[in-house]
Amino acid sequence: MKNILRRCGAWSMGTLSLGTLSLGTLLLGTITMVVAVWSSVLTGRWWMVPLAMLAVGLFPLTRWIDRRRTKPPSATETPVAQRPERPRAQVTTAPAPALPPVYDPNDPAYLAQRLLEQHRYALLLRPQIAANLKKEQLQAAVRLLDDAMGIVPEGDVLLQSWRNQGVPDDSNGPRERLVHVEAYYLDRYPVTNRQYQQFVDDGGYENMSLWDSTIWPAVLDFVDRTGHGGPRFWVEGRYREGLDDHPVVGVSWYEGAAYARWAGKRLPSDPEWVKAGCWPVLTQGTRPMQRRYPWGDTLDRELAHLWGSGAPNTVSVYEMQGGVSVGGIYHLIGNVWEWTTSNFGVWDTTARRLETATPMKSIRGGAFDTYFDTQATCQFQSGDSPISRKHNIGFRCALAMCDVVSLEVDQLVESDQMLVSCGASAEEGRL
Amino acid sequence: MSNKGVLPMDSYRLAQYSVQVPCFICEGGNSFDAEFCRHCQAPMALAHQANLRKIAPQLVATIGSADAGKTVYLGMLTDMLSRGNDDLQLLARGAFSVSLQQMTMSALSNCEFPDKTPNEPERWNWIHCQVRSSRKRNPTELILPDLSGEAILEEVDHPHTYPVIRAFLSKCRGVLILIDAVRLMDGEKDQDFFTMKMLSYLGELDDDPKTGWPTRPISLIFTKADRCETCFDDAAEFARKHSPGLWQHCQQRFKRSHFFASGVAGACAFQMELGGTRHVPLRVEPRGIVEPFRWLVEQIGQ
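Above: the input entities. Below: the structure tokens describing the complete assembly.
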């Protein structure tokens, strides 16, 4: 009997020490107190009485904490799709950012401010939206555009066959093709982890309107190591600490396209990407002179992060600034391959076309593990499945010139008048 | 019509002919100017190179089924280590040791895979090299041949068909076994069976529990892992799932075996040709090439 009483006493102490959150009923608390007091009387442990009373007092407190924790979501919150739990990797992730300020979704001024904070200035600069903005907001958006994107002028670019570049035309057909490219803006740097985190935090993986309808069934499978929506190598929806300015990798072509849509941009096409790097100059006739690399015709491994350049992984996009193109675009060669909108081999004019098991999207520029110099030129094209999420493929975004309101900064300061550059029907804003 | 001439009596030449030069692989006697061993067709240059050095080279075999990627792996490995970007460095001994590297790199840089290794032993490429490591004081001399997959299979099924393979594997200090991960993942069991046959063959050659194959290092490499990325996450787990027989075999009979994953081409396409389809690498980005070799060299040194 003594043993039983002792056990009861121990159980009540256990209840106290564990602070059981689930059993928060007053009835159970009372029974516990009675048993504890009885056992303490019989065993002579008087000091247990105040502790048992404290335990009873804790029940309402724990109940209240439980209620706070299990508060149901409000009706305005979007339900998040259930994802399977996967084993968690032991890695350090970047600290969660401070909670953003609360905006009134119906207030256009706050909405514009929020888009500016998220660097989604391209949405604000659309002709049909820019007209409704305040002057300061428009100025801020233009400044962001100037800082983050470079202009690639209109003109022709020679696209060579995906291999055997520099070899003259043979019986299999011409090895190069002249393609006209309209002027456009291109991101100065590949999209970084920090930028992509904003897309993830903004519910990019739950907002199905950002994704091609054909890929909807696969979106639930675009998860990180722990089953959260995000790039393949992230953990619990966050990138690893210290990789803020590294290009985001482990993203499929569709994830790149969804991010671009969220930011109000798009992925560049193959000719656009090549033109930004080769920077063709038309001197005589119709065949432009083009560069082999953005900085010239000779490879220097100190200007591009390739195999043998140093770290066997990605580096910050702000390193190796010497490899900049004429138009002020960085990291076109090396660090990560970049998705483009074109299909692999579509510009290949030779008769000996390649077959692939699945349709491939074109990737350009080489990566940190690209071994041969010949495969890290502006002209070299490789390809991969649009749903593959490789460790060395990232992307950067483009923006058509006609999707941006034409502004003269001086005029902007003096007056609110804005000149719409073209009446091209831009996509409906996703605001 | 005949030309008259005077031929000097080269007594030293006659003396050289009278002394037999043993082949480094099979130890059969050969004349001093023979290019290949008349017994096993291994190049006699190996014996001449070994005679010049104080340290006897150690033999490491690279085996696997046809089209497993032995030539690409060896060519890539030698090129990567000869560039000096790793703590392991490889220096070729003799001009013949550079041929494989040259052939493989020239093909890969043109986005092609090298031609299939012929079955004739005298046409195989051999590498005699010195391997230096920043972790070890003394360099290691190694001989690595690029054996034909079909010839290995023939020798395993019908022993003594290729004496050079038998002699070489008997003297090997370690082995790199290449397994096609894509075929394994597709459910083709031939890779599984071939590797188990190969391991059994090695066990038959020398099953001494102290000095034989049960205690010699065996590096099992899943090649073409770029096309099945899960292989890179955990190669041993991949083996356990897709090749349980092989995994069990290694666990039970070979104490010093380790699984690795490697890949050379980031993506592949194919081209229709008269003889069938030809695989084409769309880019070259080596992964997991040096690690199995480093492990093996460290194990041999212990």
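Note for the figure: Residues 53 and 97 of chain B are 16 Å apart (CA to CA).
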